[in-house]
Amino acid sequence: MKKNNFKFLAFATILGVLLLTTGCSSDDDNGGGSGGPGETNERWITVAGAIMGTDDGTPGDGNGGTLVYSISKEDAQDPTKTFDVFENGYLVQSARTARLQSSVDGSTFFNIAYGGSNGGEFQKYTVGGGQNFTPFGGTVNISQYAGSSPRWAKLFDGDKTGVAVSVTSPQVNSDGAGNYHYTRGTATVLALDLQNALISETKSYEIPLTTEEEASGHHIFRLDSPVLNAAGNKLIIGTWMRKTNPATGNNESDFVRLGSKSIVVDYPSLENPTVITSTVGYGDTSGYRSFNAFATEDGNIYQATQRDSGGSHILKINQNNEYDNSYVFSLDTALGVTGSYIQNWRYVGSGIAFVHYTHNGAQTSTLSNQQQSYLARIDLNTKTAQQVDLPYHIDLYAFQYQGFVVDNNDVYVTVAPVGQDGNIYIINSLTGEVTKGAKLINKTGNHFIGAF
Question: What is the H or E stretch that residue 76 is in?
Answer without folding.
Answer: helix 73-76
